[in-house]
Amino acid sequence: MSDRWIEVGDRVWARRLKELDQTLGLVVADECALVIDTGTTAEAGFAYATAIRELTNLPWQVAYTHDHFDHWFGTAAFGESAVWAVADGAHYVAFGDEQRKAWVAKYRLDGREEDARKMAASRLVPPNCRVQGAIGLNLGGRTVVLRQVGLAHSDNDMVVEVPDAGVLFAGDLLEQGAPPSYTAAYPIEWPQAVEFLLSWKPKVVVPGHGEPGDYWWARAQARDLAEVSRLCTEVAQGFLTEDEAAEHGPFGPDSMREAIARWKELTPPAPEPAPRPASAATPPPPVVVYEVFDYQVDMTR
Ligand SMILES: [Zn+2]
Asked: What is the CATH number of domain 4-176+197-214?
């Protein structure tokens, strides 16, 4: 498969990429375009920017759905523009640098020298406009909503809603063709977040990886995310073993184990109270006998 556009609504596109089966987004209005995520490297971002220029010559703004490298390492190609995200620039720079080092090392280890070079050469562009809660972004004749999600696939997810076209860009809150990633996720909170986001019943839902789907597809995935949450809870309560949960996880055993591991990381077990040595037993409190106090004071004296 080569990279291609899918028109998912009036002047709204999803860009399907071969790399990581990723899906980026584009919303075009009368005065400005909004680019949703920019790809894995500066080179991928440059290819994306070139593809966008085949559709529109309008100035662009950029929105990051979250801080995972594949969603924002391509931004250098977009020059000076407004870049919207939930987490701040300092976080993006620090976490981005960490991810870049880790991926360069991983690619080298896998003998993918060219990929390592592209990753190392990608200049990181932190966001410069922060989204807290939700904002309506007027692109000229069309307003999109940038919405902070709360805890879900990560702790800084943001979705883009295009109400006039009935399209929701969901970032990695939903995935098609592969299980959702739990490595930095909040398994218990995630399904509720998706259910809330689907409450306006968008016609088209664009995932961060895989093909766009409809409302009912997204709703089915929300149900599966809820089942993962429930299985994690039942393991915690001792109703199920981890093996049982893994066997019945809706996204397969590996994904279920990843969710349980992440859940454990987020909720470390309460430390056992240390047994008290017999010799150090606390002596009983002393009995204090207070002197009787005479309240009958003769004020006439
Ligand atoms: Zn992600």
From this structure: 3.60.15.10
